[in-house]
Design a protein that fits this description.
two-stranded antiparallel ribbon, 2 strands, mainly alpha
Amino acid sequence: MIDMDRKLGRWRLRVWGLVINLVANAIALFGIVAVVEGGSPALLIIGATLTVVCVAALAIPPRSDS
């Protein structure tokens, strides 16, 4: 399992996951615009998949040290 409370650089992995989730949401929004304008749904699929993966990883509750 991923230890989301481990530090990677300046922040914990949980914070990096939220940053990646923000980027994935932006990609999905660009994908929605592309689909509405008649383009390819590739960006929408990539952004939605990344969002689901991030939410699933971030839904793991923090460890209790007690």
